[in-house]
Amino acid sequence: MKEILLEVRDLHAGIENKEILKGINLIVREGEVHAIMGPNGSGKSTLSEVLAGNPAFTVSSGSATLNGKQLLDMTPEDRSHEGLFLSFQYPVEIPGVSMVNFMRAAVNAKRKYFNEPPLAASDFLKMMRQKRAIVELDNKLASRSVNEGFSGGEKKRNEIFQMAVLEPKLSILDETDSGLDIDALRIVAGGVNKLKTEKNATIVITHYQRLLDYIKPDFVHVLYKGRIVKTGGPELALELEERGYDWIKEEIDNESK
Amino acid sequence: MDKNKDIETNDILGDVTNNEYKYGFTTDIETDIIPRGLNEDVVRFISAKKGEPEWLLEFRLKAFRHWLTLTPPKWAHLDIPEIDFQAISYYAAPRKKEGPKSMDEVDPQLIDTFNKLGIPLEEQKVLSGMAVDAVMDSVSVKTTHREKLAELGVIFCSISEAVKDYPDLVKRYLGSVVSYRDNFYAALNSAVFSDGSFVYIPKGVRCPMELSTYFRINASGTGQFERTLIVADDDAYVSYLEGCTAPMRDENQLHAAIVEIVVEERAEVKYSTVQNWYAGDKEGRGGVYNFVTKRGLCRGDYSKLSWTQVETGSAITWKYPSCILAGEGAVGEFYSVAVTNNYQQADTGTKMIHTGRNTRSTIVSKGISAGHSQNSYRGLVKVAPKADGCRNYTQCDSLLLSSTCGAHTFPYIDVLNDTAIVEHEATTSKISEDQIFYCNQRGIPTEEAVGLIVNGYAKEVMNKLPMEFAVEAQKLLQITLEGSVG
User: Fold this and answer.
1) pLDDT-based confidence at B16, cuts 50/70/90?
2) CATH fold group of domain A4-255
3) Does B457 touch chain A (CB under 8 A)?
4) Is B457 within 8 Å of A95 when comparing Cβ atoms?
5) Measured between beta carbons, which residues in chain B are less than 8 angstroms from residue A109?
């Protein structure tokens, strides 16, 4: 059996006293790709933000471990060092900060965490060049300010580029497909597939089956009203594409009556 | 040139017939510190102590008498406690070299800051007040560069030395840009200035090194009433650095400096400042009051003056480095980053006075406020009636790091010529929690993230600093804002 990377148990969390996640259970093992789907407002983005440690959200109960370590006790930066990566749905612009400086700060912060010396400038730039190729990000983009003036597609490619540089164990892609045309989608998905190994894992959060044509999931989960209400194989995504979410909603709402 | 003649005439014809020597306080030259308070005797004492010529004493006395008629300016957006000018001692002999004997004796916190800034050990020794004989290397470097400059005819020395060695130059230019009548603090400085730097770049000479990088030691210990005079003759170029990123130890609370710059035809002066005087503690106790008058006269056609300042220190800053663009096609620039934290107050900006035709000016001001601080930009763009074809572009940005700080903008635009094009852009922003979290998610801790974001915001100005200074200044921004977010 493959090692467990992420284990979430009965996770309850919310924002400003409003509970959004109402008992999430999820196990992700090495080498697996999980898709989390669900209607708007079901808590998909909240789950990714809570796992990444966004201080805007509060966890009321439950646990989450990454590689056996208590995730919820760690600062967001330590979660990152321990191998958690979030590809943001809306990547943030940081004017005046070049991608090169930003990534160097990120890479060296991680190295410091593991008591390694900072990467020499030449080695760092060489690595940047190699990783850029994975998502076909051109040189100009890498020397521009973080996400500033990037098109929607460029922002998403830039997220995957950062993922390539940081080599996370667990990547959460939060609606990485939204706002992408078909070519950009192919490049982004291609990047994700190139980065896939036996040892890492990916959680893909999406509305549409379309992305799953490119990134093949091992498991598909349906999140509704803060709970994972259905889990299946890739065929579940196809069924959702065809039938929508209403039949699941009905099932669940009837059960709870 | 007329203006200059007037000034000379004034100097010579001024109060030459002064007969108040009877108070004769001047003889006791052995004294190192004089009693607190300011009167004509004190002014005479200072002048005598420095062995100054008669004309300079007269200059000081005129300034002093004028100062008596003035009151401190109140128009700035600053809350300045009442200053008792009679409670200040206006002369202290150069500090005796009784500092720490080795780095082991220096405050570890100071060393920590030095290291964060990446200041070389030799310089750390000087800055922490260690005896000069312990830092022979720096001294010899200094001498080598002096010789090199002398070959080119560049004069770079203290004002006191210049008064002795180049009296004609000093007499010609001193007070020609900032008159002692200019304002309260300018009058005070003119009366009691301690020391400062004098720079003269002869015609056609491009000064081959940044002045004062290698001489940083010179800049310290010049006292609280610093006076700087820089003259770039026709076709000359010089880049001058003032100050130091290291936190300056200083017991004097009031600093009232004057910087005067004269730029002749096609000459260019770049003046960069990093100001990091003691800012007071977290509760706002103590800290330096920095009341500075800086002005340059772009007298020659196609002359250029560029001010770049990074202001992070001082409890109160009152400072408006300005350009009088008199020559045809003259160019004035002002690039500023002003950071205030805790209870610091800054009211800073510039004046661009366009009196010459086709003159251009650029103003880029970046204010960063944190804690309970107040940060104001105050700028004047003035175009004289006969100055055709002038252009100004002003960009004035404020970045807020807390909900208890204040950022204010006071732009004054006074255009008396229809052909002028004057633009003003202003923005106010906050570092968003989203930006911090984005950095955190990539593994960058909050303090470092703030440093990155702030330096990104200030990049346009930081890029104007000379290379080796810029690196230190970037770290300085981050250190100044440590603990101010979250």
Assistant:
1) very low
2) Rossmann fold (3.40.50)
3) yes
4) yes
5) 443-445, 448
